[in-house]
Design goal:
about 475 residues, alpha+beta, Potassium Channel Kv1.1, Chain A, 4-stranded antiparallel beta sheet, disordered N terminus, BTB/POZ_dom, SKP1/BTB/POZ_sf
Length: about 475
C-alpha cells in the first residue's frame, strides 16, 4: 500500500510540477504581450496627438469653407440683383432703340467718318454696339461735328458697316477676310464671324489641295492653261510643258479686284511720263531710280528681255506661303521685292524657279543676289552676291516659306519669308551664304524677325 501510496504520491507531485510549469509558461506569454503593448504606447499616443491635430485642422477648414460658401452666396445674390438691373436697363434700352431706330449715329473710326442709324448698328444683336450706344450715344450731343470715336481700323469698319446694312459678304481677298474676322470678333457680330470662319475654312482646304496638286488645283482662281517655259540660263533649250494656273489674262470675278498686272497699262497712262516705270510694270514699291539700280544689278544681258511682269502681290493674292507658290512657281528668273512694316525695301534675285514640291531642298544658282533699295541706315541701293563657296545653296525650296535665299542648313537663311508674311515670322540671318559688301550685317535689311507690309514678285515677259 505504501509503495502504492508512495507511488500515487509521487505521481501527484509529478503532475503538480507539470501544472506549475504550465502556469509559468502562460504567465511568461502574458508578460511578453504586456511588454509589447507597453512599448506601443508612445506610438499610439503620438498617433492620437496627430489625429487630434488633423481633426482640429479639419474643423478649421470646415469653418473656412463655411465662410467661403457664405461669401459666395452673398456674391451670387449681388450678381443676381445686378443682373436684374441690367436686364431691366437692357429692356428699357431695347424700347429706346425701337423708338429711335431711325436716328442717326455719327462715328469717327480711326479717323474715318461714318454716318449710320441705330437700327443698322443693332440689328445684328451685337452686344458691343448695344453697350456702346447705351453708354456713348446721346441724341443732342452726337452730331456731325461731335462724332463718337472708336479706336479701330476705319478701312475695315467700312466693310463691317456694309455687312450690317446689307447682310451680304462680298469679299474675295483672303487677307481682307482675316482682317475682317478680327474686327467681327471685336464688335461681337456672331453672324459675320461664323460666315467668315466658314469661308476661311474653305480657303484652307483649297490651299491644301493646291499644295498636293500643283498641276491643276481645283480651287485656283483662274482656269488652267498649258504653258511651255524654258529658263534663259539653260545651256540647251529643254522646255517643260507645265499645266498650271496663271494669274494673268484671265476673266476676273465681277466683284473681285483685277490682278495688278492687268492694270499695269492703265496705271502707266495715269502716272506722268517722267515717273513711269518702263521695266517693272505696275509696281507700287519701285521708283524709277530703284528701277535703274535693279537693272544695273541684274545686268544688261538679262535686261534686254524687258519688260518684267508682276506675277504676285501679297496685298492682292494673300500673305501666306501657299499664295506665293500658287502665283510664282515655275517662273524663272524672278526678282522678289519686299517692303517691311517700318518701310525698308529690299529683296533678292534668282534664275531658278521656286517650288514647293519638297521640304528644304537647296538649289544652286551662281547668279543669285540680294539687294537693298531703301533702309534706315541711309545706305544707297547695294547688291550682295552669293558667295562662291555657297553657290550650291543659293536658294532653298520649302512649301511653308516664300522667297528663301540661303540655306537653313548654313546656320540659318540669309533672307526667308515664312508663312503669314504680314506677321513677325520672317527672318534675316545675313550674312551667311551671301557676301556683305557693307560690313553692316542684317541691320541693313531689317530686324532679325520682321513683318512684311508688301511683297511683289516679277518675272521676264515671254513673247
Amino acid at each position: 500500500m505504501m509503495s502504492q501510496t508512495n507511488g500515487l504520491t509521487t505521481a501527484t507531485i509529478t503532475n503538480n510540477k507539470l501544472n506549475v510549469n504550465g502556469n509559468e509558461a502562460e504567465w511568461d506569454n502574458e508578460c511578453d504581450v504586456f511588454n509589447r503593448l507597453q512599448s506601443l504606447i508612445p506610438a499610439i499616443k503620438q498617433n492620437f496627438i496627430l489625429i487630434s491635430q488633423q481633426y482640429n485642422q479639419f474643423l478649421n477648414d470646415t469653418d473656412e469653407l463655411s465662410k467661403t460658401f457664405t461669401a459666395m452666396q452673398l456674391k451670387q445674390e449681388k450678381l443676381e440683383r445686378e443682373l436684374d438691373f441690367y436686364r431691366k436697363d437692357l429692356n428699357d434700352f431695347d424700347k429706346q432703340i425701337d423708338s429711335n431706330a431711325d436716328n442717326r449715329v455719327y462715328l469717327d473710326v480711326g479717323g474715318h467718318h461714318f454716318t449710320t442709324t441705330i437700327k443698322t448698328l443693332t440689328q445684328s444683336n451685337s452686344l458691343f454696339f448695344k453697350a456702346f450706344l447705351m453708354k456713348e450715344w446721346n441724341r443732342n450731343a452726337n452730331t456731325a461735328d461731335n462724332r463718337i470715336f472708336i479706336d479701330r481700323d476705319g478701312r475695315i469698319f467700312d466693310l463691317v458697316l456694309k455687312y450690317l446694312r446689307t447682310g451680304e459678304l462680298n469679299i474675295e481677298d483672303r487677307a481682307t477676310r482675316k482682317e475682317l474676322l478680327t474686327e467681327a470678333k471685336f464688335y461681337k457680330i456672331q453672324s459675320l464671324e461664323d460666315e467668315l470662319n466658314s469661308l476661311l475654312r474653305k480657303d484652307e482646304s483649297c490651299l491644301t489641295a493646291n499644295l498636293t496638286n500643283q498641276s491643276s488645283p481645283p480651287c485656283s482662281p483662274a482656269p488652267a492653261i498649258n504653258r511651255t517655259r524654258s529658263s534663259p540660263y539653260s545651256s540647251s533649250a529643254a522646255p517643260n510643258t507645265l499645266t498650271r494656273s496663271s494669274p494673268f489674262n484671265q476673266s476676273m470675278p465681277t466683284k473681285s479686284k483685277p490682278h495688278p498686272a492687268q492694270t499695269a497699262l492703265s496705271w502707266r497712262t495715269i502716272i506722268p511720263s517722267e515717273n513711269r516705270l518702263n521695266i517693272f510694270l505696275g509696281s507700287t514699291l519701285i521708283t524709277p531710280e530703284y528701277e535703274e539700280k535693279l537693272s544695273e544689278f541684274i545686268g544688261p544681258e538679262m535686261m534686254t528681255q524687258q519688260p518684267w511682269k508682276l506675277i504676285y502681290r501679297a496685298s492682292e493674292h494673300g500673305f501666306d506661303a501657299a499664295d506665293f507658290h500658287r502665283c510664282s512657281e515655275s517662273y524663272a528668273p524672278t526678282i522678289s521685292i519686299i517692303q517691311t512694316d517700318f518701310g525698308n525695301i529690299f529683296g533678292g534675285f534668282t534664275s531658278i524657279s521656286w517650288s514647293s514640291a519638297t521640304l528644304r531642298a537647296d538649289q544652286a544658282d551662281p547668279t543669285a543676289f540680294l539687294f537693298t533699295l531703301k533702309n534706315t541706315l541711309n545706305v544707297p541701293p547695294t547688291k550682295f552676291p552669293v558667295a562662291k563657296e555657297y553657290q550650291q545653296c543659293a536658294i532653298s525650296h520649302n512649301p511653308t516659306c516664300g522667297p528663301n535665299f540661303g540655306s537653313p542648313k548654313n546656320e540659318g537663311s540669309d533672307l526667308c519669308l515664312r508663312n503669314k508674311f504680314n506677321e513677325k515670322t520672317n527672318c534675316i540671318f545675313f550674312p551667311k551664304s551671301y557676301v556683305d559688301t557693307t560690313n553692316l550685317g542684317s541691320s541693313i535689311f531689317a530686324k532679325k524677325y520682321f513683318a512684311c507690309k508688301e511683297v511683289e514678285v516679277f518675272t521676264i515677259t515671254t513673247q
